[in-house]
Amino acid sequence: MREGGRGRGFSQIEPAQTVASPAGAEFGPQPIRAPTRADPSPYPPPARGGGTIKESAPILVVRGLSVPGHGAAAVTDIALEVAPGEILGIAGIDGNGQKQLAEALAGQRPASGGTVLLDGRPIERLEVGARRRLGLRYVTDDRLGEGTVGAFPVSLNLLLKQIGEPPFWSRGLDRPDEIDRNARALVAAFDVRTPGIRTPVGRLSGGNIQKVLLARELSGTARVVIYSKPTYGLDVQNIVAARRRIRDAADAGVATILISTDLEELLELSDRIAVMSHGRIAGTVANDDRARQRVGELMIGAQP
After folding, report:
1. Which residues contact 294 (CB under 8 A, 6 or more apart)?
2. Parts of the chain belonging to CATH 3.40.50.300
3. Which tens digit of pLDDT belongs to each residue from 247-290?
4. CA-CA distance, 255 to 80, in Å (whole number)?
5. How far is the CA of 75 from the CAs of 99, 149, 272, in angstroms?
6. What fold does the segment set 1-41+52-135+222-304 form as a domain?
7. Run of H or E including 207
8. pTM higher than 0.85
């Protein structure tokens, strides 16, 4: 594990730097993000000790997970595990089964085989809401098409996966005071820049829509969070803020799967990095000084 428990910090990144790594490890030339002061975190400061993450039992264990695709399996025989407070990065060229894996773990896509254990409990047959109530959350890469309803107000989008549930609904009727109270608290905690909590979320900037998603998925009893390209399409300031939220949540004990096509992001945040290719995990490496090279080798077919 690198200094500070993750990859390099923001202060080591030069705004003008670009990367064109051998073996396609950067998934094409990628700009390294400039440092910007991030928003304050709503999470308590970390209580890390030496080896805390490595010594913790995994909270999420996946074995033999396969997901059907069009004519062939989209995901085949996936095995992974994540401990509380750990960030497992998943690298790979887009379209190699990452989204199907994320959706299957979240319960949005049926699996054709394998087991998914959360705290030792099988959840592969549970629907999305049941997995969410157990603490498994998913931040999609499609903010407007899937993650939010553009015509709905910010307040309802913050509860999009809890509609009909108490304390925000009672006997089929909404409770506006509770809905508004929740929205005001999350808008403040996650610095969502909006004219008001009843503003349609589709009128917000991409960065603020992403803040709504992060607020919804990181609030409450989040224990495992799966992120699919969480900073894609954001400006520099919102990239830095989103990465800080991801790191802070992990420091507060959330087990994290971070799917990204930006290797710099994975190196900055992850404890370990798995490489997906053709719907399989080609190998997993520690995020150490050789991580960049090993990820590149795995992407071109070297043995782990």
Report:
1. 283, 285, 304
2. 1-41+52-135+222-304
3. 999 999 999 999 999 999 999 999 999 999 999 999 999 999 99
4. 12
5. 10, 28, 20
6. Rossmann fold (3.40.50)
7. helix 206-218
8. no
